[in-house]
Amino acid sequence: MASSDHPIDRQLYILSISKLFKDLATGMLVFIIPLYVANMDSLILQDMPAVLKAGLATTVFGLANSLSQPYMGRLSERLDRRKVFLTTGYITFAIICYIYAISGNFESILFFRIVQGVAIGATIPAIVTMVTHLSASTARGQAIGIYSSLRGAAFGTGSVVGGAVVTYHGFVTGFYISAGLVLLSTILITLFVKETEAPVIKTTDDTSTDGPFIIRTLSVAMFMMIVGIMLILSLLPAYQTRLEASEFLLGIAISAYVISRIVFQVPIGILSDKFGRKLPILAGIFFNAIIVYALGQVDNVNSLILLRLLQGIAMAAVETPLLALAVELSGERKVSSRVSTITSAQAAGVAVGPLIGGVFGGYVSFETPFNISSLLIILSGILVWVALRKNYGNADHYTIAS
Questions:
Q1: What does the alpha-carbon distance between residue 350 and residue 286 come to, in Å, rounded to a whole number?
Q2: Radius of gyration, CA atoms only, the chain
Q3: CATH, residue 178
């Protein structure tokens, strides 16, 4: 358990490193699945555009993930167990990776994407709670930044690895490799990661009446951010045609976002611990709105890669201080149930983003989903600004909470 003398428990590093292989597999699947299903045979939905197929495969996973998280968070809290949720979720995830390789139609992929989404939904509240238990409040932003950076490094590499594997060895090999990587993480977590416990002393922020309102507002902003970031997944086939880009270069574009995000997460987390959460959150939201609009205008793959690099910086500015603020507003003994509101919103954004991209990109125009998303991100930023200004000024009250 983290203390004032050691604000970050070394178990945080053990947990993060053990998960690297699973995160690598997740990054591979994020890239592989949209391209895999785009031209797949379908029993019922034969006339569906390729971009909508790609979006739907991502959407059902995200919805299942999002809807299951609050229930799994409360169950984890009630049982006071976290590690078992990780191992069970990851074993299920690995089995379904193998099933993808032998599935013969689009509808079967959709079904197993739902099951896989529930499996990951069981793990996310548990992980956020473990990170909270393994860090003191004075280093909460730094701890979240460290965990997210290590996770992001593997996730970002996964898109490049996935692009290379698909280009030279095919989709089936990619699914087999993903399954093996997830099983490796499961073994490492079973052997080396210890169960964590909530602090004995109740934190003063447990009694905050304004915290739930701010958390809901932050959740809206996080949802809009992720929608804008995830539009690109269902539109990968369109980008491939418009930009005449290979799978490998598209994989680099996907990874560019994650790479820049992990570089900036820890520094931004440390700064938010010292100087407050509000400024980086708001700056990141409005910066991302500009980037999302530009992604709809891009005309070459190099510009796409650059914009994704900038989008990673914007997300780093938002995610780390936002999650740190939400944890402090929740109280450390209620993290699983309360912060799952934000992680669920993230998962919902993963689901809705590709769907919006597929529907509007497939039936209206390529630029339309980006224009809509950028406007909604601006509106969510205004909501966050009003909530933090009305309730806590610069939100510094919660920078050193508990």
A1: 19
A2: 20
A3: 1.20.1250.20
CB 308, CB 256: distance < 8 Å? yes
Does residue 203 have a pLDDT over 60? no
For residue 150, CA distances in Å to 38, 224, 318, 352, 389 come to: 31, 24, 17, 26, 33
* Amino acid code (one letter) for 256: A
Handedness of CA 179, 185, 191, 193 (dihedral sign): negative
The 3-state DSSP composition of the chain as helix, strand, coil percent (nearest 5) reads 85, 0, 15
Beta bridge partners of 178: none
Distances (CA, A) of 90 to 41, 80, 94, 103, 160: 28, 19, 6, 20, 22
Domain count of the fold of the chain: 1
User: Which of 284, 269, 390 lies closest to 324, judged by CA?
Assistant: 269
Q: Name the band, by pLDDT with cuts 50, 70 and 90, for residue 337.
A: low
CA–CA separation, 48 and 320 (whole Å):
38
Give a yes or no: residue 134 inside a domain: yes
Q: Please report the beta strands in 37-162, taking only residues with DSSP state E, as ranges in sequence order.
A: none
This prediction has a pTM of 0.72
pLDDT higher than threshold 60 for residue 251: yes
SS3 8: strand
Domain assignment present for residue 1? The answer is no
